[in-house]
Amino acid sequence: MPYPTEILRQHAIAFFQAGVAAADPYLAVMRVLMADGEHLQLRLDLADAAKPRTGNWPRIHLIAFGKAARAMAAAARDTIPLHRLVGRGIAVTNYDNASNLENIDVIGAGHPLPDTEGLRAAKIIAERARNAQHGDLVLVLVSGGGSALLPAPADVLTLEEKIATTDLLLACGASINQINCVRRHLSRLKGGGLARLAAPADLHALILSDVIGDDVSAIASGPTVPDDTTFSDAIAVLQSYKVWEQVPNTVQAYLKQGAQGLQPDTPKSGDAIFENTSYTLIGSNTISVDAVVSAAKQDFHVELYSKHLRGEARLAAEKLAIYAKNLLTKGITQPTAIIAGGETTVTLSGNGKGGRNQEMALAFALAAQQHGLTSEWSFLSGGTDGRDGPTDAAGGIVDSGTLLRIRQTGLDPLAMLNHNDAYPALKAANDLLMTGATGTNVADLQILLLSPNNE
Questions:
Q1: What average pLDDT does range 184-211 have in this prediction?
Q2: Distances 387 to 51, 382, 430, 433, 441 between C-alpha atoms, Å
Q3: Can you give the residue ranges of every domain in the chain?
Q4: What local confidence, expressed as pLDDT, does residue 280 receive?
Q5: For the domain with range 5-18+286-450, which CATH number is right: 3.10.20.30, 3.40.640.10, 3.40.1480.10, 3.90.1580.10?
């Protein structure tokens, strides 16, 4: 039975919410952290409950950072016997998610660009890690956004210089892995730096992944795991996007010194500091995509389009529109959901307002018109953190009437897309996806719902 557009939109939002719920950080921690009498158990693998890491640690240092830090810290606090915790825990998160928490110092900091509050928080965390002793456990709760929220520039660099470098990378379309490669080599905490400070104490990280493919060295720039990239790799990223000459001179000089062996590189695999460290991956985009698929299967035929959606947002949108067009050409007899998860990029050509999900939504509406999607459809692209770029929207949700609604307000949707100005375009159509901060972050979800033609 065909669904009208409004019903498709309602379903798309409900499926997105199912994906966000699957990344609930409080429950994710509770699944792997258990107190058994005098022992603490840390499950190492979600798929295998056997052989957890177990210890009778008399002193536990609780450190959390990322967009899900507050909820993750609350779960750990509610599990660990209070007398085992060394002082108050610390949770560094974005301002939207920062609120008081008993026995936890919650610090709000800047994201996606670092700020002085994040710098202050990084210094506190570095000091706490240094104070950990042999036989202690440093329990580190890591979630997406941690790279920006916890800036700790190398001693010879300023926060402003690091911000300027990050800004260049965000604007040129570099991938999150490439951005983090550079960040790691400008930082004292990233790329295993936190583990180096905490040694010789035991360390375990519970990691909520916002990185497609779940490379733990890329999540929050891998502060507790080895980093096998080099200073030369960081230089190559900046040169490949032709922004090397725009990078502050002090950053250039520092990276060159590192490449020459004159600055200490990040700790590599096999380094002795990692002998007492371990981690558990407790949530990811893949888990959330699977939850969306499960929710959609109740009423829709499901096509899993991609679990690793990457590339330029507008190009990814057009490829998806063509895929949908081919499905419709072959003929669908029941409502169909096309599901994807990942993290696209945007290369800025204008100075408008928006984010990669809003850009993808607007681009899809234009591509759907260009390629002639004839059925009723609705497309949602949203960030699971509820914040798409530097805006208050999670993304966008569009349908076959979106472009008309935009044009009726006197705006040109194509011109606005070319100016990276998706936010006001979608706002004019009442097509912004507004969820508020969700308290988690496992990258993005895309949901395209198609209704069979009435022919």
A1: 95
A2: 38, 8, 17, 10, 9
A3: 5-18+286-450, 24-152+187-229+266-283
A4: 95
A5: 3.40.1480.10
Q: What are phi and psi of 26, to 5 degrees?
A: -65, -50
The torsion angles phi and psi of 308, rounded to 5 degrees, stand at -140, 50
Architecture of domain 24-152+187-229+266-283: 3-Layer(aba) Sandwich (3.40)
For 136, the token pair is 């202690």
**What pLDDT, on the 0 to 100 scale, is given for residue 49?**
75
Which tens digits make up the pLDDT trace of 144-167?
889 889 999 999 999 999 889 988
Q: Is the dihedral of CA 145, 151, 154, 160 positive or negative?
A: positive
Residue 1 pLDDT: 60
Kindly write down the DSSP assignment for every residue of 147-215, as one continuous string: HHHS--B-TTS-HHHHHHHHHHHHHHT--HHHHHHHHHTTBSSTTTHHHHHHTTSEEEEEEE--STT--
Cβ-based neighbours of 265, under 8 Å, separated by 6 or more:
185, 230, 231, 258
C-alpha 45/C-alpha 282 separation (Å) is 8
HSE-up of 139 (CA within 13 Å, CB side)? 33
CB 371 within 8 Å of CB 389: no
One-letter amino acid of 79: T
pLDDT score, position 256 = 97
5-18+286-450 against 24-152+187-229+266-283: fold identical: no
DSSP 297: T
Q: Which residue type occupies 16?
A: F
Query: Under a CB-based contact definition with an 8 Å cutoff, are residues 353 and 421 in contact?
Result: yes
Q: Is 81 exposed, middle or buried (0-12, 13-18, 19+ CB in 10 A)?
A: exposed
- Give the separation between CA 419 and CA 404, rounded to whole angstroms: 19
pLDDT of residue 365: 98
Mean pLDDT of 101-124: 94
Structure tokens at 256: 């060159």
pTM of the model: 0.83
First to last CA, the chain: 12
DSSP output for 3-43: --HHHHHHHHHHHHHHHHHTT-HHHHHHHHEEEETTEEEE-
